[in-house]
Amino acid sequence: MLLNRPYSVILAVTWIAAVCAMASSAAFAKPSTEFSAFIEGLWPDAKVAGVSRKTFDTAFAGVEPDLTIPDLDLPGRPKIDNSGQAEFTKTAVDYLSKSYLQGLAVQGRKFLAEHKAALERIEGLTGVDRYTLVAIWGRETAYGTYHPPNDAIRMLATLAYTGKRKDRFREELIAALVMLQQGIPRSDMKSSWAGAVGLTQAMPTEYLKFAIDGDGDGKIDIWRSVADALAFTAKQLEGKGWVRGARWGYEVVAPPHADCSLEGPPDARPIGDWVRMGFKKASGNPFTKAELASDAYLMMPAGAYGPAFLAAQNFRVIRLYNTSDLYALFVGNLGDRIRGGGEFVTAWKSFSQPKTRTVEGVQSRLKQLGYPMDKIDGKIGSNTRKQIGLYEKANGLSIDCWPSERVLAHAESQAAGR
Ligand code: CA
Q1: How far is the centre of ligand 1, averaged over its atoms, from the C-alpha of 194 (Å)?
Q2: Which H or E run includes 231?
Q3: What pLDDT is recorded for position 78?
Q4: Which of 79, 258, 397, 404 is the one with CA 20 to 30 A from 247?
Q5: pLDDT score of 84
Q6: Do 138 and 245 sit in the same domain of this protein?
Q7: Any idea of the CA torsion for 221, 226, 232, 233, to the nearest 10 degrees?
Q8: How close is the Cα of 313 to the center of ligand 1, in Å?
Q9: How many Å lie between the centroid of ligand 1 and the Cα of residue 334?
Q10: Residues 371 and 331 reside in one and the same domain
């Protein structure tokens, strides 16, 4: 899970080049004795978790913090637009690139046939369908052809030492040490900058909770055994509440009187209610009885500038694997394409992504004006889109549920007049 996938490599490289020079400056370099003391401070917790002193010392031999990675809390570092995370820096039309999805789907069908027996076994065991599993593998490491370049111990140690979410990464670091204690080779601990490991890029705490032997050879190898990696992913999804036999969601067409401000989990309702409101499957096919009874929420990742979806429980589960609407939609759609469908009916419009400070500006102005904006983070999530839609509706503006200079200017003048 998380962040630095092949698709975002170019961004990340550009970004790293930009900060490398600064990282070497004294502005946020900390003495290595402080880092060593931090590492030594981990020992009691590692010991309690069952890690031997030998494993501990071997794990950290020669490890220095990497101050060039994103999401660090370093004084003097300039603010970077959403840390180079493709889920938030790419527009939907770029992130859901048709040619990229199609290419992955063709390969995915090949792997589906190649690993048929294992996938059937995993489906039977967990209820998670083979298409979603292969799609996650495709999204995360382009079917194992992308090899995350970083040392997971170094990344996790850096993030636990000086990241914005130190406690979380400290827990992941201890879990990674436990993995080494279990016999995972030190050289296998390669990761994205956020410390995710294996063919399907999952965090060490998830590994300790959910990894299983998928091919029955008596070992767990999420780096070389596709069956082990996909069984692990299936156990994760099952553990997060996957509904057997159900879809992630449906592209829909909204009735003329409905708009994007209906978006978001708080407005979830049975699909039957959406149908009574005039929503239809974009494919034109009817919903089944079981589908009509299941809950879903409206999700429009590009606001009014792209397709609308009813997101069901399994969409929420994929989103727990990696918290991004575009990520979950990518995986759901790639799974559909591997099955042989998946074309979007409504086109994604091309537009440039608003700047983080524009998004933050809109978020903070709306909050000031009394709209429930829990996070001012510059990311265009469901609630941000919804609140913009409600604001536009209340103020007689055209409703697009999208942060723009136009909405920002309007909200600024409203806020100033109060
Ligand atoms: Ca195995």
Answers
A1: 25
A2: helix 226-239
A3: 57
A4: 258
A5: 54
A6: yes
A7: 140
A8: 30
A9: 26
A10: no
Residue 85, pLDDT score:
64
CA 381 to centroid of ligand 1, rounded, Å: 38
Q: How far is the CA of 218 from the centre of ligand 1 (A)?
A: 6
pLDDT of residue 353: 87
- pTM assigned to the model: 0.89
pLDDT along the chain (418 residues), means of 10: 42 42 45 90 98 98 93 70 62 93 98 97 97 98 96 97 95 98 97 95 98 96 98 98 97 94 97 98 97 98 96 98 95 98 94 90 97 93 96 96 96 90
Q: Could you tell me the distance, in angstroms and rounded to a whole number, from the CA of residue 216 to the centre of ligand 1? A: 5
Q: Of 337, 352, 367, which residue is a domain's last? A: 352
- Asked if 177 contacts 217 with a C-beta cutoff of 8 angstroms, the reply is no
Q: Which amino acid is at 379?
A: K
CA 126 / ligand 1 centre spacing (Å)? 17
Identify the CATH number of the domain in which residue 135 sits. Answer: 1.10.530.10
d(CA 2, CA 210): 17
Gap from CA of 214 to ligand 1 centroid (Å): 5
- Say yes or no: 249 and 297 in one domain: yes
Residue type, 58: T
Which residue from 387, 407, 394, 401 is spatially nearest to 266, judged by alpha carbons? 387
